[in-house]
Amino acid sequence: MIQKIIFGLMLALLFQSCNSVKEYEKVAINDPDMKLSAKMLERYETTFQVYREAAAGANGGKSGGGCGCN
Amino acid sequence: MNTDLDYLRMKIKIILLFLILGVKSFSQDGSEFKKRVLESTEVDFLLSYYNQDGFKSAVSGGIGSEKLTDLATNLVISMPLNDDSVITIDLGISAYSSASSSNINPFNATGASGGGDDDDGDDDRKSQNVAAATAPYGTPWQASSGASKNDELSSVTVNYAHSSDTRNFIWNADVSFSNEYDYTSIGFGGGIASLFNDKNTELSLKANVYLDQWRPIYPTELHEYSKYGAGFLNQGYFSGVSVLDQSGQSNTNYFPSAFQAISDVNRNSYSASFGLSQVVSKKFQASVFFDVLKQQGLLSTPYHRIYFADKANYYIGQAEYIPNYESENNAGVYKLADDIEKLPDSRFKLPIGARLNYYINERFVLRTYYRYYSDNWDIQSHTVNIELPFKVSDRFIIFPMYRFCTQTQSKYYAPYEKHLSTEQYYTSDPDLATFEANQFGFGVSYTDIFTGGKIWKFGLKNIDFRFNQYRRSDRLTANIASIGFKFIMQ
Lengths: 70, 490
Prior knowledge:
The complex is a heterodimer of chains A (about 70) and B (about 500).
Chain A: H1 2-16, H2 43-52
Chain B: H1 2-29, E1 42-53, E2 68-80, E3 85-98, H2 99-102, E4 150-163, E5 169-180, E6 183-196, E7 201-214, H3 220-228, E8 266-281, E9 284-297, E10 305-306, E11 315-317, E12 333-335, E13 339-340, E14 346-359, E15 365-375, E16 380-387, E17 390-391, E18 396-407, E19 435-447, E20 454-455, E21 458-472, E22 477-489
Antiparallel strand pairs in B: 1-2, 1-22, 2-3, 3-4, 4-5, 5-6, 6-7, 7-8, 8-9, 9-14, 10-13, 11-12, 14-15, 15-16, 16-18, 17-18, 18-19, 19-21, 20-21, 21-22
């Protein structure tokens, strides 16, 4: 639990120090490969991993249920 | 001449006056320019092929073939309903063939199953024209002819998303349904996302509920026991079939008294997800996700066998294979189960994950992902994923991928024949064991922003291909290849 709290605090500090990036400065940020989500085709890999591993979730997608998996 | 100039000046003034009035009335309407959330209908056609092999089948109590192939396809249609709203319909079908699940009924079709319907829902689906010609046999190392060898999963999800005029607030709602032979799921949920700090920060919250239901299928021998009770070895499936003991002699003492048919077939899942995304610099952005998941109901799988270490062994098949039961050379004998796996009826999962993406230069982007997972079944897991897209040209991107996962076993897990009958909960499912897994792969992406290729009214914008190989430390291996086509309506 302590590890999780430290991890969260570090991220909060990281975000706190950010400068605002203007829309016209987001050429690189708007690159399709920079999206902060799994790619659509990745869903099939995620599905078999959910069956073959115990862990799921925390990836912006489904975290459990909807299948007879672990 | 002056009259002409005055006339021209007057004309310009009148035009300017109309222009000013026009602009003013336009702004008073409030109909300022607003970019549509989705310009036109998009259609994604996705296809995937997966195969695996392993040696620890949960259906056979932790040993045996895990061969499986799966072919899946999805059609995802996203339609703009107006400037602010998009509806997405995701239709999917997946068909698999599995050696492991074929062994729910591991015995060859010419054996005792020829004696009639055992009502377990498995034989019901297979050909009934079987003849009791030879004694039945099976093996955990090969697929049987059981009907549960094949199954199809159909699914549909509908999602509605609405963005505010400023595009700084989005809410969505979704419903889903999926069905396979022994499992049905109904799900619904919704979420909100808020962008602020010049759209550099995004906070999101979503919640989902899945109301699932099993239609349990039991291993054949346990189904017969639950159906006929004490005299089950002389009735139904077992009528006229010899049960062998460890020495290969015929024996009538097999009695799986620990087994009880499942009464609560529901599995409910409730999840809440919290997300925070931040543009850190012109080339770096990151996000964190924190999920809370509670599951209740039937969390075990009804056809996963258990063999207790403190119970005698009984078999059906050819006695000469009994000494080599755990070897892949066993081609003709199958051990009768003591019970099915039993797991608690609640589980609490806590995954936390982060993505860090960095734009290295015009050629390379670094995509990373990390997740820590823990649950109250004592499983802990770390997952790392790295992807390095490389722009070969304006149209082609290739990307190598690597993923590593390690997990500790559930406190309810023990390998084949290591559980004791005195335990309250038990499973020999290797997916809940300790292991490490490595996944290597690559992908290719082709993008044509001019959508040159056309099918009817749709222009082809993008083709993606991915291939990955998965290797687990318990010798399970898998390969998966996927391809996706994105079309834009024109």
